Amino acid sequence: MTKTTYSLKSFEKRRRRPLKALHHFRELIKNKEDTTQVFYVIEALNGNSFQKQFVKFANSDQGRKRLEEKRYLPPLLDNHDWLRTLPDGSLGRAYLHFMETEGLTAQGLVDEYSASGVSRDYGHPDMNIYGDRLRDTHDMLHVLTGFGRDALGEASVLGYSHAQHGGPGVLFIAYGAAWEVRKTAPKGAPVLKSIHEARRIGKAAKDIAYEDLMALLPQPIDEVRAHMGIKLPTQYHEVHAQMRNNGIDPYGVIGAAAA
Q1: Residue 175 — φ and ψ, nearest 5°?
Q2: Count of other CB atoms within 10 angstroms of residue 229
Q3: What's the confidence (pLDDT) of residue 39?
Q4: CA atoms of 142 and 104, how far apart (whole Å)
Q5: Is 63 in contact with 210 (CB distance < 8 Å)?
Q6: Terminal-to-terminal C-alpha distance of the chain
Q7: Mean pLDDT of all residues belonging to the chain
Q8: Cα–chain-centroid distance for residue 29?
Q9: Cα–Cα distance measured from residue 72 to residue 70, given in angstroms and rounded to the nearest whole number
Q10: 47 — alpha (psi -120 to 50), left (phi > 0) or beta?
Q11: Which of 81, 92, 124, 163 gets the highest tally of CB atoms within 10 A of its CB?
């Protein structure tokens, strides 16, 4: 069978819209739970970053395997009964605990994308599969990296992702959100260093979009981290410690400041 080879030259150049991105970022700061604003910012600033990463993915051996599988992850990740059968200490059990504790579902993120109105049709089935994998593994990155769902944790996950996938919109949100957290955090807390560290970790790690995720779920989470080269952060947890020592809830800083 002839392998399909993709080239960035085949995609139309996409214009960046910084003023639109700034408007939606301000809306995000008002309510960090309104993740539809994240999608708007990324769409406004990323240009052809997604297309560039898709070409890299689709032309790799692992990427081709994932495209050939055509595996749609949300119903598999939302099968909590199956996840509960996995061994204690496995990635799957850690993911299950995270999703149930946070009240999240994989389908919920799909619904948020749909509600945003940002098109998820990239004009080619293979591109749609790749885009879905990036979306559907977001919460798995929280589990693997140890970054929580507070504002700095979300920003740090985006910093990690940017190191692997690029995209000015992703980096803008990461540092913009961290800057807002810095306004509330104790003086000297390593808020921006958390983003720097997340980017270093992401740069050194394997990209989860390329991995056979269903094969990783039953494995011990520490072994999965070792396989992927993911080191746990220190600066992020130092910020949390300093906040709590000063009576500040890390999970409420942006929402509280904007309310």
Answers
A1: -75, -35
A2: 12
A3: 77
A4: 12
A5: yes
A6: 58
A7: 90
A8: 18
A9: 6
A10: left
A11: 92
Q: How many CB atoms lie within 10 A of CB 200?
A: 15
Would the CA dihedral through 171, 239, 208, 94 be positive or negative?
A: negative
pLDDT tens across 67-119, in order? 999 999 999 999 999 999 999 999 999 999 999 999 999 999 999 888 877 66
Q: How far apart are CA 75 and CA 105, in angstroms?
A: 9
Residue found by looking up tokens 């008002």 in the block: 30
Amino acid residing at 94: A
Task: Outline where the chain has alpha helix (H).
Answer: 18-30, 36-45, 49-58, 61-69, 74-77, 80-84, 91-102, 106-116, 125-136, 138-145, 151-165, 168-184, 191-204, 213-216, 221-228, 235-245, 253-258
- Alpha-carbon gap, residue 215 to 210, rounded angstroms: 12
Full 3-state SS string of 163-217: HHHCCHHHHHHHHHHHHHHHHHCCCCCCHHHHHHHHHHHHHHCCCHHHCCHHHHC
- Written as six digits, the tokens of 169 are 């919109």
